[in-house]
Amino acid sequence: MPDGRTLQVGTAHHLGDNFAKTFEITYEDSEGEQVYAHQACYGVSERCLAALISTHGDDKGLVLPPEVAPVQVVIIPIIFKNPEEVLAACEKVSEELKDAGIKVKTDDSDKRPGAKYYKWEMQGVPIRLEIGPRDLKNKAAMMARRDTGEKEQIPLEDISTTIKETFADIHKNLYSQAEAQLQEHIFLCEDLEGIKDKLAHGIVQTYWCGREDCGKEMEDVIGAGILGIPNEQPDCRGKKCPLCGEEAVNSIYIARTY
Ligand SMILES: [Zn+2]
């Protein structure tokens, strides 16, 4: 999360035969014996949504990746005179986008364009299209991206292809921003003082002797949870466990968690 804490969103639990014993779930094994089943359970919760909102959102509100946005494109008609012409053009673009499988909404309410921009920005709609008489004269629409705030004129011809390409670009941009933010918040620390200091800002990677009781004590002393052992390990040779001072066998991640 942007505040440096981590959020548990997915779990895998090995339940062993605890529940099988309670509920008498048995099966016949190859020897013909009735034995208790072993179970595992996996879950990804709606905390994913909280993570998404927190990670990508900005001061203007939600920023939704196109793949999960309930409205992917909002069309704002810019009307001075001849509303029929503009509204007909908006309708045509809307139909074309819908046909291409894009979730689109036209905001033809009485509000002023500025108020509409504000509303749909807050709701995180990835792309806003503004269509007015001047755009129509150029056979174009003005496209605004929620993630970067950039505006550019795009041709009406084959507009669904342009929108889909922009979706891909928005996804890439949001992903790489989030990944960079994550990497910037992982700190390699070798002593308890450093660990405590950096925990206020993010995830700490430190060395560990591999003993479970030492890990539990470390959680108590530091006041944060051990997340696990990262797949990619730094060179641990010659490194010491910051709590007991014994030789490290691998590194661990520690963080304050929600
Ligand atoms: Zn230790």
Describe the structure.
The protein has 258 residues and is an alpha/beta fold. The protein folds into 3 domains: 10-45, no CATH class; 66-181, Anticodon-binding domain (Rossmann fold, 3-Layer(aba) Sandwich), CATH 3.40.50.800; 186-255, Translation Initiation Factor IF3. It has 8 helices and 13 strands. It has helices at 18-23, 47-56, 83-99, 113-122, 133-137, 159-184, 192-199, 212-222; strands at 10-16, 26-28, 34-36, 39-44, 73-77, 104-106, 127-131, 140-145, 151-155, 186-188, 203-208, 225-228, 250-255. The chain has a 5-stranded mixed sheet, sandwiched between helices. A 4-stranded mixed sheet has the order 10-11-13-12. A hairpin with a 5-residue loop joins strand 2 and strand 3 (34-36). The mean pLDDT is 94. Residues 209, 211, 214, 241, 243-244, 246 line the site of zinc ion. Zinc ion binds next to loops.
